[in-house]
Design brief:
- The structure holds 2 protein chains of 2 kinds.
- Chain A is an alpha/beta fold.
- Chain A has 2 domains: 138 residues, Rossmann fold; 95 residues.
- Chain A is built from 14 helices and 9 strands.
- Chain A is elongated, with a radius of gyration of 24 Å.
- Chain B is an alpha/beta fold.
- Chain B folds into 3 domains: 91 residues; 31 residues, no CATH class; 175 residues, von Willebrand factor, type A domain (Rossmann fold).
- In chain B, strands 7-6-5-8-9-10 form a 6-stranded mixed β-sheet.
- In chain B, helix 8 links the parallel strand 5 and strand 6.
- In chain B, helix 10 packs parallel to helix 12.
- The N terminus of chain B is likely disordered.
- The chains are: A alpha/beta, B alpha/beta.
- At the A-B interface, helix 2, helix 5, helix 8 and strand 9 of A face helix 2, helix 3 and helix 7 of B.
Chain lengths: 298, 384
C-alpha cells in the first residue's frame, strides 16, 4: 500500500518526526506535489536543507530513495542505462565454445544485460509496483542537453531503450529536483514542476531546528547561536553560512565542551561558519569576533 | 476535499474563488510573471487540495505555480497582498478578492527618456530593409524617440542570432586521443566479440563562459540604455553569462535580467542600482569584481567583455593592478568602447591608456553594425 499524507498538517508532523522542521508554506507545496503527482523543484542558497528534505521525505513515506547527482558532462549512459558489454561478450564466447546454435543464444539485448542507472531504476521500480522517490540533485550543474532529455522522463515517466522498447512507470515516483542556481534552469523544466524557494530560516525556525536536532546544546546557548547567525546573514559575506553550517558549529561547540560564546571560542570555531578565505580574513581584519561576543553578553 | 465544508457550500464558494483566481493570474501576468494557461489550470486543480480560508496555504498554491525564480517573489508578494484580503483570524474569513484599479506606471531607468519598447518577434518583420540599413549605421547617441523602439527590436534579433551561432555544436574532430571502450566493444559485438579496431573519442571542449561588465556612469548615458538592451538579449539567448554594471561601485544584475519581460527587468534594475549615471571608478569596480566574484566566475574558459568609454576618475595604479589580476584568471578580454566610432578619437586618456595593454580585442560599439562585428569577433574568440 502506498503511504501518503492525509493533510498539510500531516506533512509537517511526519517531517517533524524525522527531525525536519518545515514551515506551513513548504508543507503546503509538498502536499500539493504529492497529491498532484508533480515533481518538486527546490531552489535556495547552499545549506538550507534542499537535499535533506528529499531524504527525509522518502523516509517519512517509506520509499526507497534513488539519487542522481548531477555534474557537468553527465550523460545518458550514467543517468539512464548502459549495456553490460562484458556479460554480452562472455555470453557470445560461451555460445562459441559450446557450439550452440542461434536458437540457444538468447537475445543478448534483453533486460538481463542492462545495467540500470538511477532514472531507469526509478521508472522500473514503479513499473513493478515498488514505490520510490527520485532525487535529482543540483540539476544546474548538468548541461542544458541533459535537461532537455529529462523533459521526456518527467512528463511521460517513460524511458525508451531502442533495443527493447519503451519502459513505462505504472505509478509516478515522487521526484525532487534541487538547484543551487549557478545557472537558470530551462522554463520547460520549471513549467512541469512545483517551484519552491527555500529562504534562510527565521530566528524561530532555526532555533527549533537546532534544539530538535541537537537538544544537548541547551536552550539558552541555542538561542544565542541562532540570534548570532541571523546577524551574520545580514552582513555581506561572500558565502553566507546556511543551516548546515549552524549545525556543524553547534556540534563543534559540544565537542569542545564550550557552554558560552566568548571572543576566543568564536575565533577558534569560525572555520565551521566561513569556508572562504575572504570571509575568514574579513572576520579577522574587522575584529568581528570580539564585537559579536560583546553583543551576545548583553 | 476541503475539510469542514459541505459539498454544495464548497462548490459555491470555490466558484467565486475560481473567478477571482483568474483575475489574480491576469494581474500577475501584467506585472511580468510567467503566467500561462497551463499553470493556471494546474493552480485551479490544486484549489480543492487546500483550505481556501488559510492564507499561507493559498499563498503556497499560487506561488508554487506562478513563481519560478526568487526575483519574482517580491512582485508576487506585493500583488498577492494587494489582491486577496485575508483577515488575521484565518478561520473567520472567506478570502475575498479586493479589486484594485489598474495602476501601471511607465517604468523608466534613470538617465533615459522613455520606457523601452517590447520586442515581439513578429513585429521585427515590419522594419523594411532600407530603414534597417540606415539604422545600423546610426550612432546610438543620436537616436531620437521613435527610432529607439525599432532599434530595440533589432538589438534583440541580433542577440538571438548570436546566441544561436554560439550555441551550435562543435564540429567533430578528425581523430580523438582517448580510446572509447564503450564504442569499441559495442562495435566488436558485430564480429563476435573480437576487438578488431579501437574506437576513439574526443573530450568535449569545455564550454565558454561570459562575463559582461557595463559602465553606466554619466558619460555613458546616451549608450547605456542600448547596451543594457543588448545585455538583456545576450544573457537571454546565450548560456552561461554573468552580467554586472558599474560606475563608482559594482552591482551584479544577472538575476535581474532574467525577468521574462524587459520592462520588469528595467524596473528591478532601476530599484537596485543606485549608482546609475554616477562618476567612474573602473579600478575599484574591477577590484570589487575580482574580490567578490572572481573566484566563482573567472576561469580559463571565461571571455570577459568590458563596455566602457574608459573615462576613469580613479587611481591609475589600482586600475593597472586589477587589470593584471583579472587577466591572470581569464581566457580573453574584450573591451567595447563607443567612442571608437567618433572621428579623430584616440585612446590616450589615462584610464584607457593604462588598460589597453591587457586587452586582446579593442572594439567599437557605437552602432548596430559595430555590435554585429563584435558578435563575429566573439564567435571567433570562443572557438580559439
Amino acid at each position: 500500500m502506498k503511504k501518503t499524507f492525509q493533510s498539510i498538517d500531516d506533512v509537517s508532523r511526519a517531517l517533524k518526526k524525522q527531525k525536519y522542521i518545515c514551515d506551513r508554506k513548504l508543507a503546503t507545496v509538498i502536499y500539493l506535489a504529492i497529491k498532484m503527482e508533480k515533481p518538486l523543484l527546490l531552489e535556495g542558497e547552499a545549506g538550507v536543507g534542499k537535499t535533506e528534505l528529499a531524504k527525509v521525505l522518502s523516509k517519512a513515506l517509506d520509499r526507497r530513495l534513488i539519487r542522481l547527482q548531477c555534474y557537468e558532462g553527465l550523460d545518458t549512459h550514467t543517468a539512464v542505462y548502459e549495456w553490460n558489454y562484458t556479460k554480452q561478450i562472455l555470453r557470445i564466447k560461451l555460445a562459441e565454445a559450446h557450439q550452440e546454435g542461434l536458437d540457444n543464444l538468447k537475445n543478448i539485448f534483453d533486460e538481463a544485460y542492462l545495467i540500470q542507472r538511477p532514472l531507469l531504476e526509478a521508472i522500473r521500480s514503479e513499473a513493478h509496483g515498488k514505490h520510490v522517490s527520485l532525487l535529482i540533485d543540483e540539476l544546474d550543474r548538468a548541461d542544458e542537453e541533459f535537461e532537455a532529455f529529462l523533459l521526456e522522463v518527467l512528463s511521460e515517466y517513460q524511458i525508451t531503450v531502442p533495443e527493447i522498447g519503451t519502459l513505462k512507470a505504472k505509478t509516478k515516483p515522487l521526484v525532487v529536483i534541487t538547484s543551487n542556481r549557478t545557472r537558470e534552469l530551462h522554463d520547460a523544466i520549471k513549467r512541469r514542476c512545483l517551484y519552491h524557494w527555500i529562504h534562510y530560516p527565521s530566528l524561530e525556525k532555526e532555533y527549533e531546528i537546532v534544539t530538535t536536532k541537537i537538544p544537548e546544546i541547551g536552550e539558552e546557548l541555542a538561542f544565542k547561536i541562532c540570534s548570532l547567525m541571523q546577524q551574520v546573514r545580514q552582513m555581506d559575506f561572500y558565502k553566507k553560512p546556511g543551516v548546515a553550517e549552524t549545525l556543524d558549529w553547534v556540534s563543534a561547540l559540544l565537542l569542545l565542551n564550550r557552554d558560552h560564546l566568548d571572543a576566543e571560542t568564536l575565533e577558534e570555531t569560525m572555520g565551521c561558519l566561513f569556508k572562504y578565505q575572504e570571509d575568514v580574513e574579513r572576520v579577522e581584519n574587522e575584529n568581528l569576533a570580539p564585537s559579536w561576543a560583546e553583543a551576545l553578553r548583553s | 476535499m476541503t475539510k469542514g465544508a459541505t459539498p454544495s457550500a464548497h462548490r459555491e464558494r470555490s466558484g467565486d474563488f475560481v473567478l477571482n483566481s483568474l483575475h489574480f493570474a491576469r494581474q500577475l501576468k501584467e506585472k511580468g510573471l510567467p503566467v500561462t494557461l497551463g499553470r493556471t489550470l494546474d493552480a485551479l486543480r490544486g484549489l480543492r487540495l487546500i483550505r481556501l480560508e488559510d492564507k499561507q496555504e493559498a499563498y503556497s498554491l499560487f506561488s508554487t505555480h506562478y513563481v519560478s525564480r526568487p526575483e519574482e517573489l517580491a512582485v508576487f508578494d506585493a500583488v498577492f497582498e494587494e489582491f486577496w484580503c485575508y483577515r488575521d483570524r484565518p478561520e473567520a474569513s472567506d478570502a475575498k478578492a479586493c479589486v484594485q484599479p489598474e495602476a501601471n506606471p511607465p517604468l523608466t531607468l534613470p538617465g533615459e527618456m522613455e520606457p523601452s519598447a517590447d520586442h515581439a518577434s513578429n513585429e521585427r518583420q515590419k522594419i523594411s530593409y532600407s530603414s534597417r540599413d540606415i539604422m545600423c549605421k546610426k550612432d546610438f547617441a543620436a537616436m531620437i524617440e521613435g527610432e529607439s523602439r525599432e532599434i530595440s527590436q533589432l538589438i534583440m534579433a541580433m542577440a538571438q542570432d548570436l546566441g544561436m551561432r554560439l550555441g551550435r555544436r562543435w564540429r567533430a574532430g578528425a581523430k580523438g586521443k582517448q580510446v572509447d571502450l564503450r564504442g569499441s566493444i559495442r562495435a566488436s559485438l558485430r564480429h563476435g566479440g573480437e576487438l578488431l579496431a579501437l574506437h576513439k573519442k574526443r573530450r568535449q571542449p569545455k564550454k565558454t563562459r561570459f562575463v559582461v561588465l557595463c559602465d553606466v556612469s554619466g558619460s555613458m548615458d546616451s549608450y547605456s540604455r542600448f547596451l543594457l538592451q543588448f545585455m538583456y538579449g545576450f544573457q537571454r539567448h546565450v548560456p552561461r553569462v554573468e552580467t554586472f554594471v558599474f560606475s563608482t561601485r559594482l552591482t551584479r544584475i544577472t538575476s535581474l535580467l532574467r525577468m521574462r519581460k524587459i520592462d520588469a527587468a528595467y524596473a528591478l534594475i532601476a530599484e537596485k542600482v543606485s549608482h546609475w549615471s554616477g562618476g567612474t571608478r573602473i579600478g575599484s569596480s574591477l577590484s570589487e569584481y575580482n574580490r567578490r566574484y572572481g573566484r566563482r566566475h573567472s576561469n580559463s574558459n571565461t571571455v570577459f567583455i568590458l563596455l566602457s568609454d574608459g573615462w576613469d576618475q580613479g587611481e591609475t595604479g589600482l586600475l593597472e593592478k586589477e587589470m593584471k589580476e583579472l587577466k591572470r584568471r581569464i581566457k580573453r578580454l574584450m573591451w567595447l568602447n563607443p567612442l571608437l566610432g567618433m572621428p579623430g578619437y584616440r585612446p590616450i586618456d589615462r584610464g584607457m591608456r593604462t588598460a589597453l595593454p591587457y586587452v586582446e580585442d579593442f572594439l567599437d560599439c557605437h552602432n548596430l553594425d559595430q555590435l554585429e562585428t563584435f558578435g563575429r569577433e566573439l564567435e571567433r574568440a570562443c572557438s580559439l
